[in-house]
User: Fold this.
Amino acid sequence: NAGVMQNPRHLVRRRGQEARLRCSPMKGHSHVYWYRQLPEEGLKFMVYLQKENIIDESGMPKERFSAEFPKEGPSILRIQQVVRGDSAAYFCASSPGTGSFQPQHFGDGTRLSIL
Amino acid sequence: SQQGEEDPQALSIQEGENATMNCSYKTSINNLQWYRQNSGRGLVHLILIRSNEREKHSGRLRVTLDTSKKSSSLLITASRAADTASYFCASHLRAGGTSYGKLTFGQGTILTVHP
Assistant:
């Protein structure tokens, strides 16, 4: 069984460019979560999505960041006009339907470096 | 504010010894989860303890939860060099609505087990 797949594993962008990070959840999982991890720190929640719906985006910066989880295809985290401070590891997690006692399964992350 | 605080920040032990990591949180929770992260990889779910549980075991892992003190501990018995990793607690907050699904992570404990 394939786990959560994230690509690319590493992404290098210059300041001002756009970064697109993709996440395919585990088979049968309809809930996707994005987290950001700065060096030497824990993960910080960004956004929680279900198919075609954003459920909670309380951790998303108000500008330049957006996320989607379309009916078909992977979830996308998009960062426009990247700045140095966006350099981090971005992790996607998925879980099956409702139920607060379901663990989240994580991908190996995308390491974003801004030059 | 930081929901999860962990201590120690770093722990270095010899193979065969036990390792104990502690986590505190600030608000009411549905459950608390422990994850492990190897360098450069995503998080792996270890164990979930519900708010109405006090202790849970899984193999060499033992987790306790004290909701009156808003704290949890993870004990790894008979440690192995392969246990070397970062360990994070993550709290799943009580209440439905938009907080549902979001995990709040601590800063993590870096465990090094020397052979």
